[in-house]
Amino acid sequence: MFKPELWQSHDEYRTLVTTVGRRLSRNNPKYSFDLYKEEQDKLLNLDLDPLLDLIPAYYSDGGRPAQHQAQLLRSLVLFVLLFNKTKAGTSLTSWVREVLPASISLTVLIGCPSTDELPPLGSYYDLMDRFWQGDRHVYSRSSLLPAGRNGKKPQKVIGSDGKLSEPQDTASTTTKDIVADIMDGKPVSDNTQEALQKIFSILAVLPSLQAGLFDAADLTVSGDGTAVASHSSPYGRHLSSCGRSCPFRSTCGRHYSDPDAGWGWDSDNETWFFGHTLYMLCCRNAKLKVELPLLMNFTGARRHDSKNFLYAIDSFGRNGCGLSPKNICLDSAHDNIPTYILLEHWGINALIDINGRSKSSVGATDDITFNKNGHPLCRAGHEMCSWGSDPIKDAHKYRCPLRCGRIGKCPYETECSPGRYGRTVYIKNNGSLRFQPRIPRDSQQYKDIYSERTACERVNNRVLNDYCLQHLKIRGRDHFSLWGMLIGICIHLDARYKAAQQ
Per-domain residue ranges for the chain? Predict the structure, then answer.
Protein backbone atom coordinates (compact mmCIF):
# COMPACT_ATOMS: atom_id res chain seq x y z
CA MET A 1 0.00 0.00 0.00
CA PHE A 2 1.21 3.50 -0.82
CA LYS A 3 0.26 6.41 1.44
CA PRO A 4 1.18 9.89 0.15
CA GLU A 5 1.39 11.22 3.72
CA LEU A 6 4.38 8.90 4.34
CA TRP A 7 6.25 10.32 1.36
CA GLN A 8 9.10 12.68 2.22
CA SER A 9 8.53 15.81 0.11
CA HIS A 10 11.38 17.66 -1.53
CA ASP A 11 10.86 20.65 0.79
CA GLU A 12 11.16 18.36 3.82
CA TYR A 13 14.30 16.84 2.39
CA ARG A 14 15.83 20.23 1.65
CA THR A 15 15.09 21.41 5.19
CA LEU A 16 16.66 18.29 6.70
CA VAL A 17 19.85 18.62 4.65
CA THR A 18 20.31 22.34 5.25
CA THR A 19 19.64 22.19 9.01
CA VAL A 20 21.22 18.91 10.11
CA GLY A 21 23.88 19.15 7.46
CA ARG A 22 24.91 22.64 8.52
CA ARG A 23 25.21 21.48 12.12
CA LEU A 24 27.32 18.47 11.12
CA SER A 25 29.56 20.63 8.98
CA ARG A 26 30.05 23.38 11.58
CA ASN A 27 30.33 21.50 14.85
CA ASN A 28 31.59 18.08 13.80
CA PRO A 29 34.24 18.34 11.08
CA LYS A 30 35.04 14.66 11.62
CA TYR A 31 31.79 13.74 9.88
CA SER A 32 33.19 15.21 6.61
CA PHE A 33 29.81 16.46 5.47
CA ASP A 34 31.45 19.01 3.17
CA LEU A 35 33.28 16.17 1.44
CA TYR A 36 30.00 15.33 -0.36
CA LYS A 37 29.17 18.92 -1.37
CA GLU A 38 28.92 18.04 -5.07
CA GLU A 39 26.64 15.05 -4.42
CA GLN A 40 24.55 17.21 -2.08
CA ASP A 41 23.98 19.81 -4.82
CA LYS A 42 22.99 17.10 -7.27
CA LEU A 43 20.50 15.48 -4.88
CA LEU A 44 18.98 18.85 -4.01
CA ASN A 45 18.40 19.22 -7.75
CA LEU A 46 16.57 15.86 -7.85
CA ASP A 47 12.92 16.55 -7.08
CA LEU A 48 11.06 13.25 -6.54
CA ASP A 49 7.66 14.83 -5.85
CA PRO A 50 6.37 14.51 -9.49
CA LEU A 51 6.41 10.72 -8.99
CA LEU A 52 3.41 11.01 -6.66
CA ASP A 53 1.15 11.09 -9.73
CA LEU A 54 2.69 7.93 -11.19
CA ILE A 55 3.95 5.35 -8.72
CA PRO A 56 0.83 4.74 -6.53
CA ALA A 57 -0.57 2.63 -9.38
CA TYR A 58 2.25 0.11 -8.84
CA TYR A 59 1.36 -0.58 -5.20
CA SER A 60 -1.40 -2.79 -3.86
CA ASP A 61 -4.60 -1.36 -2.37
CA GLY A 62 -4.11 -3.14 0.96
CA GLY A 63 -1.43 -4.44 3.24
CA ARG A 64 1.23 -2.71 5.24
CA PRO A 65 2.00 0.86 4.08
CA ALA A 66 5.32 1.24 2.28
CA GLN A 67 7.76 3.50 4.11
CA HIS A 68 10.86 5.46 3.13
CA GLN A 69 10.15 5.17 -0.60
CA ALA A 70 11.65 8.57 -1.41
CA GLN A 71 14.68 7.81 0.78
CA LEU A 72 15.20 4.47 -1.00
CA LEU A 73 15.21 6.08 -4.43
CA ARG A 74 17.53 8.84 -3.25
CA SER A 75 19.84 6.29 -1.65
CA LEU A 76 20.09 4.31 -4.90
CA VAL A 77 20.95 7.47 -6.85
CA LEU A 78 23.58 8.49 -4.29
CA PHE A 79 25.00 4.96 -4.36
CA VAL A 80 25.46 5.24 -8.15
CA LEU A 81 26.99 8.72 -7.86
CA LEU A 82 29.56 7.32 -5.39
CA PHE A 83 30.40 4.12 -7.31
CA ASN A 84 33.94 3.04 -6.34
CA LYS A 85 34.35 6.16 -4.15
CA THR A 86 33.42 4.36 -0.93
CA LYS A 87 34.47 0.99 0.43
CA ALA A 88 31.16 -0.42 -0.84
CA GLY A 89 32.47 -0.24 -4.41
CA THR A 90 29.56 -1.43 -6.55
CA SER A 91 28.03 -3.70 -3.88
CA LEU A 92 24.55 -2.65 -2.82
CA THR A 93 24.68 -5.02 0.15
CA SER A 94 27.84 -3.40 1.46
CA TRP A 95 26.37 0.07 0.84
CA VAL A 96 23.26 -0.67 2.90
CA ARG A 97 24.79 -2.76 5.70
CA GLU A 98 28.22 -1.19 6.14
CA VAL A 99 28.66 2.24 4.55
CA LEU A 100 25.37 3.99 5.40
CA PRO A 101 25.19 2.89 9.09
CA ALA A 102 28.79 4.09 9.60
CA SER A 103 28.24 7.57 8.10
CA ILE A 104 25.72 10.06 9.48
CA SER A 105 26.63 12.38 6.59
CA LEU A 106 25.50 9.91 3.93
CA THR A 107 22.47 9.01 6.05
CA VAL A 108 21.35 12.64 6.06
CA LEU A 109 22.00 12.98 2.33
CA ILE A 110 19.49 10.21 1.54
CA GLY A 111 16.87 11.87 3.76
CA CYS A 112 17.11 10.02 7.09
CA PRO A 113 17.78 12.12 10.22
CA SER A 114 19.55 9.26 12.01
CA THR A 115 21.05 5.85 11.25
CA ASP A 116 18.26 4.23 13.30
CA GLU A 117 15.76 5.07 10.54
CA LEU A 118 17.71 3.54 7.64
CA PRO A 119 15.57 1.14 5.57
CA PRO A 120 16.72 -2.52 5.42
CA LEU A 121 18.22 -4.22 2.38
CA GLY A 122 15.01 -6.11 1.61
CA SER A 123 13.16 -2.83 1.09
CA TYR A 124 15.60 -1.91 -1.68
CA TYR A 125 14.93 -5.08 -3.61
CA ASP A 126 11.19 -4.73 -3.08
CA LEU A 127 11.33 -1.27 -4.63
CA MET A 128 13.58 -2.43 -7.46
CA ASP A 129 11.20 -5.26 -8.40
CA ARG A 130 8.05 -3.17 -8.10
CA PHE A 131 8.31 -1.29 -11.40
CA TRP A 132 9.12 -4.27 -13.63
CA GLN A 133 6.03 -5.10 -15.69
CA GLY A 134 7.13 -8.46 -17.01
CA ASP A 135 6.82 -11.99 -15.70
CA ARG A 136 8.90 -12.33 -12.55
CA HIS A 137 8.44 -16.11 -12.32
CA VAL A 138 11.38 -16.78 -14.67
CA TYR A 139 13.76 -15.10 -12.20
CA SER A 140 12.71 -17.32 -9.31
CA ARG A 141 15.39 -19.62 -7.91
CA SER A 142 12.98 -22.54 -8.29
CA SER A 143 12.02 -21.82 -11.91
CA LEU A 144 13.11 -24.42 -14.45
CA LEU A 145 13.58 -23.76 -18.14
CA PRO A 146 14.42 -26.19 -20.96
CA ALA A 147 18.01 -27.35 -21.37
CA GLY A 148 19.79 -25.73 -24.28
CA ARG A 149 17.57 -22.66 -24.01
CA ASN A 150 20.30 -20.32 -25.23
CA GLY A 151 21.76 -22.67 -27.81
CA LYS A 152 25.31 -22.34 -29.11
CA LYS A 153 27.15 -19.35 -30.44
CA PRO A 154 25.66 -18.41 -33.84
CA GLN A 155 27.84 -19.57 -36.70
CA LYS A 156 27.67 -16.59 -39.04
CA VAL A 157 30.23 -15.03 -41.31
CA ILE A 158 31.84 -11.80 -40.12
CA GLY A 159 32.58 -9.28 -42.87
CA SER A 160 35.83 -7.39 -43.40
CA ASP A 161 34.31 -4.38 -41.63
CA GLY A 162 33.82 -6.36 -38.41
CA LYS A 163 30.03 -6.50 -38.82
CA LEU A 164 27.80 -9.51 -39.30
CA SER A 165 27.12 -10.10 -42.97
CA GLU A 166 23.40 -10.39 -42.17
CA PRO A 167 21.11 -9.43 -39.28
CA GLN A 168 21.65 -11.50 -36.15
CA ASP A 169 18.00 -12.22 -35.47
CA THR A 170 15.97 -14.50 -37.70
CA ALA A 171 12.53 -13.57 -36.38
CA SER A 172 9.68 -13.45 -38.86
CA THR A 173 8.78 -9.87 -37.87
CA THR A 174 10.37 -7.43 -40.32
CA THR A 175 11.01 -3.69 -40.10
CA LYS A 176 8.13 -3.26 -42.54
CA ASP A 177 5.75 -5.03 -40.15
CA ILE A 178 6.94 -2.97 -37.17
CA VAL A 179 6.55 0.33 -39.04
CA ALA A 180 3.06 -0.66 -40.19
CA ASP A 181 1.99 -1.27 -36.57
CA ILE A 182 3.53 2.01 -35.40
CA MET A 183 1.74 4.00 -38.10
CA ASP A 184 -1.52 2.26 -37.15
CA GLY A 185 -1.04 3.41 -33.56
CA LYS A 186 -0.54 -0.09 -32.19
CA PRO A 187 2.03 -0.82 -29.45
CA VAL A 188 4.75 -2.78 -31.24
CA SER A 189 5.93 -4.66 -28.15
CA ASP A 190 4.94 -5.63 -24.65
CA ASN A 191 7.12 -2.94 -23.09
CA THR A 192 8.05 -4.35 -19.70
CA GLN A 193 10.28 -1.29 -19.09
CA GLU A 194 7.50 1.25 -19.55
CA ALA A 195 7.28 2.29 -15.88
CA LEU A 196 11.06 2.73 -15.62
CA GLN A 197 11.10 4.79 -18.82
CA LYS A 198 8.34 7.04 -17.48
CA ILE A 199 10.21 7.53 -14.20
CA PHE A 200 13.37 8.36 -16.17
CA SER A 201 11.51 10.93 -18.27
CA ILE A 202 9.94 12.56 -15.19
CA LEU A 203 13.09 12.70 -13.06
CA ALA A 204 15.76 13.27 -15.72
CA VAL A 205 14.58 14.28 -19.20
CA LEU A 206 11.86 16.80 -18.30
CA PRO A 207 13.93 18.71 -15.65
CA SER A 208 16.86 18.92 -18.09
CA LEU A 209 14.52 20.28 -20.74
CA GLN A 210 13.21 22.89 -18.30
CA ALA A 211 16.81 23.78 -17.37
CA GLY A 212 17.54 24.52 -21.05
CA LEU A 213 20.04 21.70 -21.59
CA PHE A 214 18.40 20.91 -24.94
CA ASP A 215 15.90 22.61 -27.21
CA ALA A 216 12.66 20.72 -27.78
CA ALA A 217 11.90 22.78 -30.92
CA ASP A 218 15.26 22.00 -32.54
CA LEU A 219 16.06 18.56 -31.16
CA THR A 220 18.60 16.32 -32.87
CA VAL A 221 18.47 12.72 -31.61
CA SER A 222 21.00 9.99 -32.34
CA GLY A 223 20.45 6.28 -31.78
CA ASP A 224 22.81 3.37 -31.33
CA GLY A 225 23.12 0.06 -29.51
CA THR A 226 25.92 -1.35 -27.40
CA ALA A 227 26.73 -4.81 -26.08
CA VAL A 228 26.31 -5.45 -22.34
CA ALA A 229 27.68 -8.77 -21.16
CA SER A 230 25.85 -10.74 -18.48
CA HIS A 231 27.74 -12.28 -15.57
CA SER A 232 25.92 -15.59 -15.86
CA SER A 233 26.38 -18.96 -17.49
CA PRO A 234 24.58 -19.55 -20.80
CA TYR A 235 24.20 -23.24 -19.91
CA GLY A 236 22.23 -22.89 -16.66
CA ARG A 237 22.62 -25.24 -13.74
CA HIS A 238 20.88 -28.32 -12.41
CA LEU A 239 19.02 -28.29 -9.15
CA SER A 240 20.88 -29.79 -6.21
CA SER A 241 18.39 -32.67 -6.16
CA CYS A 242 19.40 -33.71 -9.68
CA GLY A 243 22.52 -35.86 -9.23
CA ARG A 244 24.91 -37.03 -11.91
CA SER A 245 23.34 -40.47 -11.84
CA CYS A 246 19.98 -39.07 -12.93
CA PRO A 247 19.02 -40.71 -16.29
CA PHE A 248 17.21 -37.53 -17.42
CA ARG A 249 20.07 -35.17 -16.55
CA SER A 250 20.78 -34.18 -20.17
CA THR A 251 17.17 -33.19 -20.91
CA CYS A 252 15.69 -32.08 -17.60
CA GLY A 253 15.02 -28.43 -16.87
CA ARG A 254 17.67 -26.08 -15.57
CA HIS A 255 17.79 -22.84 -13.65
CA TYR A 256 19.15 -19.78 -15.47
CA SER A 257 20.29 -16.84 -13.39
CA ASP A 258 19.77 -14.56 -16.42
CA PRO A 259 17.01 -16.13 -18.51
CA ASP A 260 16.72 -13.05 -20.77
CA ALA A 261 20.34 -13.09 -21.97
CA GLY A 262 21.36 -14.42 -25.36
CA TRP A 263 24.28 -14.65 -27.76
CA GLY A 264 25.21 -11.62 -29.84
CA TRP A 265 28.10 -10.15 -31.79
CA ASP A 266 30.05 -7.20 -30.36
CA SER A 267 31.44 -5.44 -33.44
CA ASP A 268 33.55 -3.02 -31.37
CA ASN A 269 35.54 -5.77 -29.68
CA GLU A 270 35.01 -8.23 -32.56
CA THR A 271 33.86 -11.06 -30.33
CA TRP A 272 30.75 -12.97 -29.37
CA PHE A 273 29.17 -12.03 -26.07
CA PHE A 274 26.43 -13.47 -23.89
CA GLY A 275 24.14 -10.79 -22.53
CA HIS A 276 21.89 -7.97 -23.71
CA THR A 277 21.86 -4.99 -26.05
CA LEU A 278 21.42 -1.52 -24.57
CA TYR A 279 19.84 0.73 -27.19
CA MET A 280 19.79 4.45 -26.42
CA LEU A 281 18.44 7.64 -27.93
CA CYS A 282 20.69 10.58 -27.03
CA CYS A 283 21.18 14.29 -27.72
CA ARG A 284 24.11 16.68 -27.36
CA ASN A 285 24.56 20.16 -25.93
CA ALA A 286 27.46 21.57 -27.94
CA LYS A 287 27.82 24.67 -25.78
CA LEU A 288 28.25 22.75 -22.52
CA LYS A 289 29.87 19.78 -24.29
CA VAL A 290 27.60 17.28 -22.58
CA GLU A 291 25.62 14.34 -23.96
CA LEU A 292 22.29 13.28 -22.50
CA PRO A 293 20.39 9.99 -22.84
CA LEU A 294 16.72 10.48 -23.67
CA LEU A 295 15.70 6.81 -23.67
CA MET A 296 17.45 3.65 -22.46
CA ASN A 297 16.02 0.35 -23.64
CA PHE A 298 17.45 -3.14 -22.99
CA THR A 299 16.70 -5.65 -25.72
CA GLY A 300 17.83 -9.10 -26.82
CA ALA A 301 21.43 -9.52 -27.95
CA ARG A 302 20.31 -11.13 -31.21
CA ARG A 303 17.99 -8.33 -32.29
CA HIS A 304 19.33 -6.11 -35.06
CA ASP A 305 19.72 -2.37 -34.45
CA SER A 306 17.36 -1.60 -37.34
CA LYS A 307 14.57 -3.13 -35.24
CA ASN A 308 15.91 -1.84 -31.93
CA PHE A 309 15.52 1.72 -33.18
CA LEU A 310 11.89 1.20 -34.19
CA TYR A 311 11.00 -0.27 -30.79
CA ALA A 312 12.91 2.55 -29.07
CA ILE A 313 11.34 5.40 -31.04
CA ASP A 314 7.88 3.94 -30.39
CA SER A 315 8.60 3.82 -26.63
CA PHE A 316 10.02 7.35 -26.80
CA GLY A 317 6.82 8.61 -28.38
CA ARG A 318 4.73 7.00 -25.64
CA ASN A 319 6.94 7.72 -22.62
CA GLY A 320 9.16 10.64 -23.65
CA CYS A 321 7.23 13.63 -22.30
CA GLY A 322 5.77 14.42 -25.72
CA LEU A 323 9.13 15.31 -27.30
CA SER A 324 9.32 15.20 -31.09
CA PRO A 325 12.79 15.23 -32.71
CA LYS A 326 13.54 17.47 -35.66
CA ASN A 327 16.50 15.40 -36.86
CA ILE A 328 17.47 11.75 -36.25
CA CYS A 329 21.03 10.57 -36.88
CA LEU A 330 21.68 6.83 -37.33
CA ASP A 331 24.47 4.64 -38.65
CA SER A 332 24.32 2.35 -41.68
CA ALA A 333 22.76 -0.53 -39.68
CA HIS A 334 19.50 1.45 -39.79
CA ASP A 335 19.54 1.98 -43.56
CA ASN A 336 16.21 0.49 -44.66
CA ILE A 337 13.23 1.88 -46.53
CA PRO A 338 10.57 1.34 -43.77
CA THR A 339 12.58 3.53 -41.37
CA TYR A 340 12.71 6.33 -43.96
CA ILE A 341 8.98 5.99 -44.55
CA LEU A 342 8.22 6.24 -40.82
CA LEU A 343 10.41 9.30 -40.28
CA GLU A 344 8.97 10.96 -43.40
CA HIS A 345 5.46 10.24 -42.09
CA TRP A 346 6.33 12.05 -38.87
CA GLY A 347 8.05 14.93 -40.68
CA ILE A 348 11.49 14.13 -39.18
CA ASN A 349 14.73 14.70 -41.10
CA ALA A 350 16.46 11.33 -41.54
CA LEU A 351 20.28 11.45 -41.50
CA ILE A 352 21.32 7.83 -42.05
CA ASP A 353 24.51 6.43 -43.51
CA ILE A 354 24.14 4.39 -46.70
CA ASN A 355 24.78 0.69 -46.13
CA GLY A 356 27.02 -0.43 -48.96
CA ARG A 357 26.54 -4.11 -48.08
CA SER A 358 22.81 -4.01 -48.72
CA LYS A 359 21.62 -5.50 -52.01
CA SER A 360 19.26 -2.58 -52.47
CA SER A 361 22.18 -0.15 -52.17
CA VAL A 362 23.84 -0.95 -55.47
CA GLY A 363 22.59 2.38 -56.80
CA ALA A 364 24.12 4.32 -53.93
CA THR A 365 27.77 4.07 -54.99
CA ASP A 366 29.85 7.18 -55.52
CA ASP A 367 29.60 7.16 -59.33
CA ILE A 368 25.79 6.97 -59.39
CA THR A 369 23.90 10.23 -58.81
CA PHE A 370 20.29 11.35 -59.11
CA ASN A 371 18.58 14.20 -60.91
CA LYS A 372 15.85 16.37 -59.39
CA ASN A 373 13.21 13.81 -60.34
CA GLY A 374 15.03 11.01 -58.52
CA HIS A 375 16.16 9.32 -61.77
CA PRO A 376 19.61 7.66 -61.49
CA LEU A 377 22.40 9.09 -63.65
CA CYS A 378 25.35 7.02 -64.77
CA ARG A 379 28.99 8.01 -64.34
CA ALA A 380 28.91 9.94 -67.64
CA GLY A 381 25.84 11.92 -66.54
CA HIS A 382 23.29 10.12 -68.76
CA GLU A 383 19.91 8.98 -67.47
CA MET A 384 19.89 5.22 -66.97
CA CYS A 385 17.17 3.29 -68.76
CA SER A 386 14.14 2.14 -66.80
CA TRP A 387 13.80 -1.64 -67.23
CA GLY A 388 10.73 -2.60 -65.24
CA SER A 389 10.32 -3.81 -61.67
CA ASP A 390 11.69 -6.75 -59.74
CA PRO A 391 8.88 -8.02 -57.43
CA ILE A 392 11.28 -10.21 -55.44
CA LYS A 393 13.59 -7.33 -54.57
CA ASP A 394 10.66 -4.87 -54.36
CA ALA A 395 12.76 -2.56 -56.50
CA HIS A 396 12.82 -0.79 -59.86
CA LYS A 397 15.48 -1.84 -62.33
CA TYR A 398 17.68 0.50 -64.40
CA ARG A 399 20.21 -0.45 -67.12
CA CYS A 400 23.22 1.16 -68.74
CA PRO A 401 22.02 3.57 -71.50
CA LEU A 402 24.92 2.54 -73.79
CA ARG A 403 23.98 -1.16 -73.75
CA CYS A 404 20.33 -0.24 -74.29
CA GLY A 405 21.20 1.71 -77.45
CA ARG A 406 20.13 5.08 -76.10
CA ILE A 407 23.56 6.69 -76.60
CA GLY A 408 26.27 6.03 -79.15
CA LYS A 409 29.50 6.38 -77.20
CA CYS A 410 30.60 6.52 -73.56
CA PRO A 411 34.08 7.44 -72.23
CA TYR A 412 33.68 4.92 -69.39
CA GLU A 413 32.52 1.99 -71.52
CA THR A 414 35.27 -0.42 -70.53
CA GLU A 415 35.50 0.69 -66.89
CA CYS A 416 31.82 0.90 -65.97
CA SER A 417 30.04 -1.86 -67.92
CA PRO A 418 32.37 -4.31 -69.68
CA GLY A 419 29.62 -6.95 -69.93
CA ARG A 420 27.23 -7.16 -72.88
CA TYR A 421 24.20 -6.59 -70.65
CA GLY A 422 25.69 -3.48 -69.09
CA ARG A 423 25.58 -2.12 -65.63
CA THR A 424 22.37 -2.68 -63.65
CA VAL A 425 21.10 -0.65 -60.73
CA TYR A 426 18.19 -1.61 -58.46
CA ILE A 427 16.40 1.19 -56.63
CA LYS A 428 14.01 0.14 -53.88
CA ASN A 429 10.43 1.29 -54.19
CA ASN A 430 10.17 4.50 -52.19
CA GLY A 431 13.93 4.68 -52.64
CA SER A 432 13.78 8.43 -53.26
CA LEU A 433 13.40 8.84 -49.50
CA ARG A 434 16.68 7.03 -49.11
CA PHE A 435 18.81 8.48 -51.90
CA GLN A 436 17.32 11.97 -51.82
CA PRO A 437 16.68 12.79 -48.14
CA ARG A 438 15.25 16.07 -46.95
CA ILE A 439 18.76 17.35 -46.24
CA PRO A 440 21.14 16.46 -49.14
CA ARG A 441 23.95 14.17 -48.05
CA ASP A 442 26.61 16.26 -49.79
CA SER A 443 25.58 19.49 -48.02
CA GLN A 444 27.47 21.11 -45.16
CA GLN A 445 24.24 21.19 -43.13
CA TYR A 446 24.05 17.39 -43.32
CA LYS A 447 27.66 17.04 -42.16
CA ASP A 448 27.19 19.48 -39.26
CA ILE A 449 24.07 17.75 -37.97
CA TYR A 450 25.35 14.21 -38.50
CA SER A 451 28.47 14.98 -36.45
CA GLU A 452 26.20 14.87 -33.38
CA ARG A 453 25.66 11.12 -33.85
CA THR A 454 28.75 10.48 -31.71
CA ALA A 455 26.68 11.55 -28.69
CA CYS A 456 25.54 7.93 -28.35
CA GLU A 457 29.10 6.63 -28.28
CA ARG A 458 30.05 9.09 -25.54
CA VAL A 459 27.01 8.17 -23.46
CA ASN A 460 27.86 4.49 -23.98
CA ASN A 461 31.30 5.15 -22.53
CA ARG A 462 29.81 6.93 -19.52
CA VAL A 463 27.29 4.17 -18.84
CA LEU A 464 29.65 1.22 -19.29
CA ASN A 465 32.87 2.65 -17.85
CA ASP A 466 32.32 5.82 -15.77
CA TYR A 467 29.28 4.31 -14.07
CA CYS A 468 30.49 0.71 -14.22
CA LEU A 469 27.35 -0.92 -15.63
CA GLN A 470 29.49 -3.60 -17.27
CA HIS A 471 31.10 -4.43 -13.90
CA LEU A 472 27.94 -4.64 -11.80
CA LYS A 473 27.25 -8.19 -10.66
CA ILE A 474 23.63 -8.10 -11.75
CA ARG A 475 21.55 -10.52 -13.79
CA GLY A 476 18.21 -10.32 -15.54
CA ARG A 477 16.83 -7.64 -17.81
CA ASP A 478 14.74 -6.32 -14.93
CA HIS A 479 17.80 -5.32 -12.89
CA PHE A 480 19.78 -4.18 -15.93
CA SER A 481 16.90 -1.86 -16.86
CA LEU A 482 16.62 -0.42 -13.36
CA TRP A 483 20.35 0.23 -12.94
CA GLY A 484 20.47 1.67 -16.44
CA MET A 485 17.69 4.10 -15.48
CA LEU A 486 19.57 5.13 -12.30
CA ILE A 487 22.77 5.71 -14.27
CA GLY A 488 20.85 7.79 -16.81
CA ILE A 489 19.45 9.95 -14.01
CA CYS A 490 22.99 10.49 -12.65
CA ILE A 491 24.24 11.55 -16.10
CA HIS A 492 21.51 14.19 -16.23
CA LEU A 493 22.34 15.34 -12.68
CA ASP A 494 26.00 15.67 -13.72
CA ALA A 495 25.00 17.81 -16.71
CA ARG A 496 22.72 20.06 -14.65
CA TYR A 497 25.46 20.47 -12.04
CA LYS A 498 27.94 21.43 -14.76
CA ALA A 499 25.49 23.97 -16.19
CA ALA A 500 24.92 25.47 -12.72
CA GLN A 501 28.67 25.81 -12.15
CA GLN A 502 29.10 27.71 -15.41
Answer: 4-130, 157-354+448-501, 359-440
